[in-house]
């Protein structure tokens, strides 16, 4: 416990306490680390009467299980402070904090415990499809199998405050792009593995709504570090390249007058066999296959029972790389892309299972 100084203080609704010794210590309540300030009167008679009447004179927000039992005490800053330096600055900050947030808080926020609310953890899994947003027009997706756009996510969550959850997990899946035009014919499939952490907030802002009708509406924001590998389908099953002709066909030879009869029309196999990073396209090779991203999502959760919930939602991944599709603003010729990074959207549905941490580990409600 740190000693902060000796002063005279007037306690609102009580009496003046002379030569008050101030001490501070940190106390952990669940996930909350609070600074609690204690006043120790030097006069034994005063200290005895105060402690007898009020337990101990504590300047803090006291967390209790019933809102009716909450105690708060106010400090009035002395008009003529008698000391300087660190203790004075700390006291000024302390008094401003308690004056503003306890006497007249700018927003109505309180931390309470609710009987029966357990501090819970959640484990879940979901599956869905991805949508890519980048340098390709994505106008040739008819032949792309839905399995090439598959995505999945493992979710680990835990209650912090009742409308707030700490989230972590792992996203894994593929994004696909395919452009077919008179100017260029490009395609890719990029596999992504992205561990993430973040925070979710229930926009209904209480468990009351979730408990009354079984629904909750979550806003998620976080950060991720992902690994990616862009691949392309530029060869057939025998390893021969595709040649795109102006009539829209794909053939085994280049489009020149002498090949009109000999070039055989073939179909793409949609087997993405070529690692673009090793091809040195646009005089760029061995670029980083990892980057940071910032996922932001919305989801609706339906509670079936005390343990199981169903969730449906979407997460938009804002990435800090322009190489997910192997096309950038610095690409050469018809391959030249747009300025800006590549993004993708993950739409999913899945199940969550609640794991309580025991009735004695209850989570405070923020409201």
Could you describe the 3D structure shown?
With 367 residues, the protein is mainly beta. The protein contains 3 helices and 19 strands. It has helices spanning 44-54, 86-103, 207-213; strands at 2-11, 16-29, 32-41, 58-59, 75-76, 111-112, 120-133, 150-159, 164-180, 185-202, 215-232, 243-244, 250-251, 265-266, 274-275, 290-303, 308-319, 343-356, 365-366. Strands 7-8-9-10-11-16-17-18 form an 8-stranded antiparallel barrel. The radius of gyration is 31 Å and the shape is elongated. The model is unreliable at 1-18, 28-87, 97-117, 207-211 and 359-363 (pLDDT under 50).
Q: What descriptors fit this protein?
A:
single chain, 367 residues, mainly beta, Porin, 3 domains, eight-stranded antiparallel β-barrel, five-stranded antiparallel beta sheet, 3 helices
The CATH topology label of the largest domain is: Porin
Helix/sheet category? mainly beta
Instruction: Tell me what portion of residues adopts beta-strand conformation.
Output: over 45%
Going across the major beta sheet, what is the strand order?
7-8-9-10-11-16-17-18
The assigned CATH architecture of the largest domain is Beta Barrel
- Share of residues in helices: under 10%
H-E string: EEEHEEHEEEEEHEEEEEEEEE
User: Average pLDDT, to the nearest integer?
Assistant: 74
Count of the separate structural domains: 3
Question: What does the main sheet amount to?
Answer: 8 strands, antiparallel, barrel
- Gross morphology: elongated
| End-to-end C-alpha gap | 31 Å
Low-confidence stretches: 1-18, 28-87, 97-117, 207-211, 359-363
